[in-house]
Amino acid sequence: MAFISDLKLLRPSFYYLILAGFVLAVIYLTGIQPKAKEKDILRAEILNIKAILEEHGALYPVYQQLQMELEASQDYLPVSFGPLEAWHVEDIDGAIAAIKQVIHDSGLEEVRLTPIPKSLERGGGKFAAQVELSGQLDDLRKFILELVEVPFFGGYETLEIQKRAEGMRYVMKLWITMS
Description:
alpha+beta, Alpha-Beta Plaits, 2 domains, four-stranded antiparallel sheet, 3 helices, elongated
């Protein structure tokens, strides 16, 4: 009988032991284990970033060497602009018409040609126009080479090339000299 009474005394301790084990399992599953997974993910990201940094560190001297060679190279064909002619504000329509003629002669299709009025505020004897064209890349090359021969052409600031389902589209911001 003494043995049975000893078991009755152990029963509440056994329940407390099971309860403590359950609490520890909940704490582990809700707190410790997710943080361990997060730590592993962060460790993998850190290793990935370190590999990228090492790659960049190894390639940077090569980049510097190529940059110096490019600057030292004179193998490119410099484009020289013809003599600049100043235009009067009244002649802006004539300049736009001349640009349209160059577009037509080069084989490109004009989508939009819009003068930018705010560019007149900058002063400097120039105004800007945004030109949107479509056509072949060779025709764009012809357009640029013909455009630099136009006396009032002051340069272009941006050239954006977009590939679309209907073909290539080019958006340029041109500068035109004026007085």
